[in-house]
Amino acid sequence: MKLEISEIIHRVGQQATVPITMPCPAEADFTCQGPVSGTLTLTNTGRHLLVRGDLAATVQVECSRCLKEVLVPVSARIEEEFPLPTFDARGVPHWEIEGEPVSTILEGYHLDVGELARQHLSLAVPTAPVCDAACQGICPGCGKNLNEGPCTCPPPEIDERLAGLKALLDESEE
Ligand SMILES: [Zn+2]
Ligand SMILES: [Zn+2]
Question: Distance from the CA of 143 to the center of ligand 1, in angstroms?
């Protein structure tokens, strides 16, 4: 989704509040369930376009313990400034500063809200999500999902010799 911003760009102090509803950004490293939504307020501060607001989505991730798919709400508070183009004597905007593009998000009268959402929401996706705080995970021995019941693997053995060594160490500490 790209917002047309030519009006804001040409008038210092101009502001617009825009409701956002769009599909998941195509390049994202996460998958959304439903749209990305929120509100952005754009302000021309003279030298910058100030973008403030909130974006939210529900993303599909794998439980870090049992790998089941879970839906997690994520949201991001946006507060970012993008340099505005410079205008020459004839009022023609220049989108490059010393040969570098002003921004990949703000380019040629368009604000790339999809890219803005991709960058901010990917940081909000939890790195170790769980389907449930009590998730039992997967047995490292047989691979069974332990939420569906116990497996038949033997319980981890306590090595008798190590137990004896521990007792000795405990004694020597006294
Ligand atoms: Zn789980
Ligand atoms: Zn097992």
Answer: 13
